[in-house]
Structures are given as structure tokens and as C-alpha cells.
Amino acid sequence: MVFRYPKVYPILDASILPLTGRVQFLAKLGGALTKAGVRLLEFRNKVSSTADLLKEAAALREAMPREKVKLILDDREDLVLEVGFDGVHLDEADVTPSEARWLLGPEKIIGTFGGSESLLPEVFSEPANYFAIGPVFETRTKQTTKKPIGVEGVRELRKQAGRGVVLSAAGGITFETAQAVLDAGVNMVAVSEAIFHASDPAKEFERWKDKFG
Asked: Among 28, 65, 144, 178, which residue's Cβ finds the most Cβ atoms within 10 Å?
């Protein structure tokens, strides 16, 4: 069965994790997000040691069963199989999608950066399943030197990409701006701060799902 990408793609950044009890926190949060209806989630953790990342990712996987949720690991294609995740998201400084595909096989989801003000040359020749564009607006959860492209930039990148390419827009997207970004032509809005800085992230995600599907 072909996976149908949801319109809201939560990105769980390790910056929200407590200093202690992280595994327990993730187990509880993951369970709540699963119950709220999350079907695709990226875990972005650039701060934990590999040993701690393995434990934290395992806690998420246990709380978010593969038959209900596709879990994407940011950067660490070398750990995807070990933690039982469903794919990897790669940035410009990471390995290429071709290298990740060789390692992970044909069934795993591979996301990669597609472009900002314009699409990267030959980006669609890479064996990736979805392509991230942006930042759309100013963002505080991911360090970047790229300037925001706005809704019009999103619309222009969809024109360049054509139909049939899965695009995910990221960067400072809020509940109030998400519909305009979706209307500009992307398949998904990738959201971190607007969901995970809420007092109850699972309840906040439900609000997004109810409005955007």
C-alpha cells in the first residue's frame, strides 16, 4: 500500500526534552501523539550521544507502533534500521539520498532538502520520497542562514517542481498561516514549535488535524 502523506508533519525537536527522565517523557508523549492521530513524525536530535539517542528513539518507537505511525529520524541514516524507524530526513550536509537508499533499501522513506529560493539542481534525480522546502517564515527551532521565502516562494517552488512531487514546507509555520502555505501547493506543512511548545502537544496536534486533515 502506498503511504498517504498527511497534511501536518510534526517535527519533534530534542530541545523540548527535559534534562532528566527523557526516555519516560518520550514514552508518555509518544503515546499521547499516537492516540491523537499522528501518522508521520520526525525525531530531530542533534544533542544526545549516540547511546542516549538509541534509548530515546527506542522509547518513541515502542510508544508509536509502526502499524500506526511512520517515524523519521533526522540525519542519522546509520541508526534507522537499528531503532526500527521508517525512514530518515537528510539535509544538505548529510549523506546523499542515493547513499541512504543503498543503506536502507527500497521500502524506507527518505526525505531531503529540495531548495529555498529555487530548487536545487537535479534534486529530483535523487531517490527521495519527499522534498523539504523553506524556510517559509522565520524559525527558531532550526539554525539556518537561508532567508524566508514566504507563501509566494512556496507557490513558485511548486511551479518549478510540477505535479507528482511530494513537497513539505517548513519554517515558522503557525496554525494561522498553515492553510495559506498548503494552498500554495505543498503536500505537507512540517511543524515543530507551534505544536511542541504548546502546553499539551497532543491536544494541539488534534486541533491541527481537525482543521487541516
From this structure: 178
88 strand-pairing partners: 73, 110
pTM of the model: 0.96
Scan for cell 548529510, then name that residue: 94
CA distance 74 to 39: 17
Amino acid type, 212:
F
Dig out the grid coordinates for 180 from the structure: 495559506
* Beta bridge partners of residue 11, listed in sequence order: 42
What whole-number distance in Å separates Cα of residue 35 and Cα of residue 203? 10
Residue 52 grid cell: 542516549
Give phi and psi for 44, each to the nearest 5. Answer: -110, 110
Dist. CA 81–CA 91, nearest whole Å = 19
Radius of gyration for the alpha carbons in the chain, expressed in angstroms and rounded = 16
Of 10, 45, 64, 48, nearest to 191 (Cα)?
10
Which structural domains are found in the chain, ordered by start?
8-212 (3.20.20.70)
pLDDT tens, residue by residue, 111-159? 999 999 999 999 999 999 999 999 999 987 666 678 999 999 999 999 9
Q: Is omega for the bond preceding 135 within 30 degrees of 0, making it cis?
A: yes
